Amino acid sequence: MHHGKNKNQFIRFMEIYLIVFILLQPILDITAYINLPISEPIRVLTLFLGLIYVLLSPYKRAKMFSISYIVLLGIFMGLSLVNNLMVKEPVSLITETTYIIKTSYFLIMLIVYYFVFKSLSERIDWRSKLQKYLTINLTVIGVVMVIASLTDTGKRSYGMLDKEGHSGWFYSANELSAILGIGFAIMILFLMKQPTVKKLFLLIPAVIVTAWAIFTVGTKVGLGSILMVLALGSLIALFEAFKKKAWLNAIVLPALFVVSILAIPYTAVGNNMDLTYENNNPAPDTETETDEEGSGGNDTGTEEGTGGAEGEEEDDSSGNVDATALLSNRDVFLGEKVEQFRQAPISQKLLGMGRGGNYEYEPSLVEMDLMDWFLNFGIVGFVILMTPVVYFIYMILKNLITSRFRVLTGENLFIGVAVGIGLGTAFLAGHVLSAPAAGIYLALLLAYLYRSTKPSQKISPT
């Protein structure tokens, strides 16, 4: 009896901790930037506590599938690592292990938060809490970016002089733009759900500061997110205004949308995409996000040091010519890595070439997460890594169809857009699926969307 009580206490404690852990993200990211070595230990500790939480979960069927998957993932990662230590030259055990942990982090946190939301949905309104916490996180990031700008202490996003933008006191501009891009949809959703005029107007400065921060980082990812989210918000607000005769959101959101469009030429991202009003010195558009942070953020993300040094010049060679503007020279890296993969032994084709492929001097990533997953973890690894992502997306679509789209609410549309931005960023710009700082936001929202689209919020055997 006593054992059961302790178990329940631990489960409750972990649920509180895992929700509070969301609020810790910007603080962990800043400590990584100033080389205070706490973000990695806390993230790794949370990973292990999360695994224990899943092991103790009362949902037997879901637990059996999840634990089986995590064991399979662990066995695969072990085989991949051993194989690369045997056949890859040069190879670094620390670099390979760090990359494996960072990649596993996203997948395990996705599973952990699935259980958290499943449990909380029986007791509290966790959705509003999560929206509020993510809004707080983005506001903190925005304020830090403003302070970094005013004190001129922001870390340059790019190594090139004709590129503008900085990532404030955050380690990687790529990851920061992914976090802001994913989170902005939740912030606008939270704004639209405010019950009073006063609360809505108190939130508007936070939205403006966050939008300004997104523009200031200087990447395409953030710009795309702002335009997409504000356009969607404006449409939903106008639709609801006609339906419910509530016009405030229908005025505020289109106004923010128009102001954002007019502001683009005056911002770092406007300069970097050659969208400024004075075109005296057009900036070449061929290597946008890739050159950020020169690029310690390749997957070091806001983690300090472990994978960092070897990533320092990952992007420096990316200033080659004929790449499409959209891919920012990633196709050049992709060509090199595919050639390495083609020449790799069969064991590496199946189990992957490890972080950065079969490099001669320094490991570099393609910076397109799905491509990196395929090349670095091989055919078998890619299937294993993609299984939870594909499962969650399949279940979300199934929930939509079986409910005859009744679960396609405004809220779920915003969460879907946030997930879409996260997955799109992972595919085109990287720094999400193997970067814990950004990956946790996508994991949270994918688990959120799955739970939120379930037609019934009651206890179920799955």
From TrEMBL:
One annotated GO molecular function is: ligase activity
The record ties this protein, via Pfam families, to:
O-antigen_lig (PF13425)
Q: Where is the composition biased (Gly residues)?
A: 295-309
Keywords, comma-separated and alphabetical: Ligase, Membrane, Transmembrane, Transmembrane helix
The organism that produces this protein has a lineage beginning with: Bacteria, Bacillati, Bacillota, Bacilli, Bacillales
The highest taxon in the source lineage is Bacteria
Q: Where are the transmembrane segments?
A: 16-36, 42-59, 66-87, 99-121, 133-151, 171-192, 199-215, 221-239, 246-268, 373-397, 409-427, 433-450
Q: What name does UniProt use for this protein? A: O-antigen ligase family protein
Q: Where is this region: Disordered?
A: 277-320
The UniProt entry, under InterPro entries, shows: O-antigen_lig
